[in-house]
Amino acid sequence: MPTGQQILEAQDRHPGIPSSGTTAGVAVVGGTTTGIANYLVGANRRAVVSVDVQAQVTTALAAGQGGAVHVKVGVVPNQTISQRYIPVASPVGTQQFLHFDGLIVGAGETVTAEVVCDPGAGALGAFGLIHGVEYDA
C-alpha cells in the first residue's frame, strides 16, 4: 500500500480538528515579538496542520518600520521553518503574508505563528491561524 494512503487511514483514528489564532488585528509594537497562534499536539497524537500569518505596517514615523513573520516548530518552538521579512524603513501599508501547508507534527511538539516588529516607534497589525487534523499516533 502506498505511504500516502497510510497517512490518510491514520487520520481516521479518532480525528480532531485543531484551530488556534485570531482574524482580528493584533497590535505588535516596536521591539517586540508576539505569538499570534500556538498549537500543542497532545500525547499519543499526530497532526497535519496549515499555518497562515500576516503582518502589515500600521504606524511608522518618517523613517518607516520593519519586521518579520515566522512559523516555528519543536518541543520548544525554537526551530524557525519558514519566515518572511518586511524591509527596514517600510512605509505604512507594507505587508507580508506566509502560508505553510501540510506540516506534520508529533506528540509534544508545538507550532507557533509569530510576528516580530523591529525596534522603532512604529507598529504592525497582525493576524494568524493554525488549523488542521489531529489523530491517534
Describe the structure in your own words.
With 137 residues, the chain is mostly beta strands. It has one helix and eight strands. It has one helix spanning 3-10; strands at residues 19-29, 32-40, 45-59, 65-74, 79-90, 95-106, 110-117, 123-136. The strands form two sheets. A four-stranded antiparallel beta sheet has the order 1-8-3-6, with no helix packed on it. A four-stranded antiparallel beta sheet has the order 2-7-4-5, with no helix packed on it. A hairpin with a 4-residue loop joins strand 4 (65-74) and strand 5 (79-90). The two termini are 18 Å apart. Residues 1-6 have low confidence and may be disordered.
What is the average of the pLDDT values?
87
Spatial extent as radius of gyration? 17 Å
Helix-strand pattern, N to C? HEEEEEEEE
Number of strands: 8
Q: Rough shape?
A: elongated
The portion of residues forming beta strands comes to over 45%
Summarize this structure as a short list of keywords or feature phrases.
137 residues, mainly beta, 4-stranded antiparallel sheet
Layout of SSEs?
Elements: H1 3-10, E1 19-29, E2 32-40, E3 45-59, E4 65-74, E5 79-90, E6 95-106, E7 110-117, E8 123-136
Antiparallel strand pairs: 1-8, 2-7, 3-6, 3-8, 4-5, 4-7
Summarize the structure.
This protein has 137 residues and is mainly beta. It contains one helix and eight strands; from the N terminus they run H-E-E-E-E-E-E-E-E.
